[in-house]
Amino acid sequence: HYPLRRQRQMCIRDSYNAIQQGANGVDMGRNIFQSDAPVSMMQAVRGVVHEGLTPEQGLQMFNDLKAKGTK
Fold this sequence. Notes:
Elements: H1 4-20, H2 30-33, H3 38-50, H4 55-67
């Protein structure tokens, strides 16, 4: 298993890559629900998928939301 930080990066990057390759959305399971901050992760993935954030911006959004206490 990858360290938690690496898992976050991969989840957000994979979401970005899917959208860049023409997907209309992504289907997430354990990457969201097993996250230490699932709401923050869901919002970061949403930012990548629906708001056009880059993986770096998505990860920053996750970190910012988590730092504010968003679960």
